[in-house]
Amino acid sequence: MFETLSDRLTSVFSSLRGKGRLSEEDIDKTAREIRLALLEADVALPVVRAFIAKVKERARGEEVSKALNPAQQVIKIVNEELVEILGGETREIRHAKNAPTVIMLAGLQGSGKTTLAGKIVKWLADQRNTPLLVACDLQRPNAVTQLQVVGQRASVPVFAPQPGNGVGDPVEVARQSVEHARLNNNNFVIIDTAGRLGVDAEMMQQAADIRDAVQPDEILFVVDAMIGQDAVNTAQAFLDGVGYDAVALTKLDGDARGGAALSIRHITGRPIMFASTGEKLEDFDLFHPDRMASRILDMGDVLTLIEQAQRTFEQDEVEEMAGALASDTDFTLDDFLKQMQMVRRMGPISNLLGMMPGMGQMRDQINDVDDKDLDRITAIIRSMTPGERLNPKLINGSRRLRIANGSGVQVSDVNGLVTRFFEAQKMLKQMKNGGMPGMPGMPGM
Ligand code: GDP
């Protein structure tokens, strides 16, 4: 899902890594690259234009935070704009004041309506609702049987035309189904309607007639994400022909590009409510724009981490620390202690490390990092004299024993810390040459 776009954006961001600040030229170049990435992902042109204009405006703007380096700032902006373009808030189902809540599905044949109907009823039933599935696709041979099979798999009753009882008239079937639901305490009615292979006036009319007969609480336009740009045209045709409240995207599992998902909200003004990611009834959820954006950016929880850093640290603290790291004088044990205390304020260390991208495979080592280790390090550094902290090379054998006694640890612990500190100092020197993220790091860990 969205692999193409993810890969492209990741490489755009990595080219910003190590930059101290973004020049006008950097912003233009980055915007051009993001634009290409979106076009390649088959995102509709007006959406691309709006997106790029927004990102450029914000990248130039004053809101730039000193707690983040340029690459992080751009990622943050792109992430927020992606969330926006995907619809912002998660769109929940609107419930009818008086049950049943009626949901009508409309879309082309093969878009995945019947499958989606099964997924919705299963999802609703799992949340202790009592949905009723309604077969109003009386055109396609086997459509009713297919819906009955789906209903059986989801353990949900199916309302289908009875012989001699309005057979062949989907509008009548829909009307009767709502009555049936009322009598049988079904609090949701999901109506599957007939689709055609292409946009067709007769199909639109039938859907509009069903809509007028039952006045659904939600009309969902169901669309196959794999058809890319075509989804946008079809979406517009259904908007004009039937109208709808929200969109259900199907077959996202087969959509490497993501053009439909990223375009449809902007073009139609209707939010995406559901995303379907496979043929099984379980492959389904409400569509969460924020989670989808994180997935596209392949960022792990790094955004949460960035926000947490911003929330935790005062701007001047960040600047002071960044200054200490960037200055030509050596990084001292005092800096080390201060930095460690800053990082600790963000929460348990294993949680923090777990949020870094790529740390998933290191889960075991992460769990070994204990907050008590940090307490011990703090105690050791506090037992040193100011001179020793400034110049740890002074710390000879007898001083080590004194420090160990003063902080209640073994001499080997003091040795370990001093060794790790020198390694960190060396690493920092190397990083200064290659550029350094603006966030406090954790040398020696
Ligand atoms: P309808 O004509 O709109 O009712 O479409 P169907 O529900 O019959 O679906 C058409 C085909 O798409 C079927 O083969 C489904 O198994 C398949 N399908 C539906 N939803 C998904 C999905 O989310 N992912 C994948 N991979 N296939 C799907």
TrEMBL record:
Keywords (A to Z) from UniProt: Cytoplasm, GTP-binding, Hydrolase, Nucleotide-binding, Ribonucleoprotein, RNA-binding, Signal recognition particle
Residues engaged in binding GTP: 107-114, 192-196, 250-253
Statement: the UniProt record of this protein carries the keyword Ribonucleoprotein: yes
The SRP54-type proteins GTP-binding domain, residue ranges: 271-284
Biological process according to GO: SRP-dependent cotranslational protein targeting to membrane
GO molecular function: 7S RNA binding; GTP binding; GTPase activity
Signal peptide from the UniProt entry: none
Residue ranges that the Swiss-Prot or TrEMBL entry lists as coiled coil: none
EC number, UniProt record: 3.6.5.4
Superkingdom of the organism of origin: Bacteria
Comp. bias regions, Gly residues: 435-445
Family to which the UniProt record says this protein belongs: Belongs to the GTP-binding SRP family. SRP54 subfamily.
Function: Involved in targeting and insertion of nascent membrane proteins into the cytoplasmic membrane. Binds to the hydrophobic signal sequence of the ribosome-nascent chain (RNC) as it emerges from the ribosomes. The SRP-RNC complex is then targeted to the cytoplasmic membrane where it interacts with the SRP receptor FtsY.
Entry text on domains: Composed of three domains: the N-terminal N domain, which is responsible for interactions with the ribosome, the central G domain, which binds GTP, and the C-terminal M domain, which binds the RNA and the signal sequence of the RNC.
Full protein name: Signal recognition particle protein
Organism: Murinocardiopsis flavida
Portion of the full-length sequence here: 1 to 445 of 532
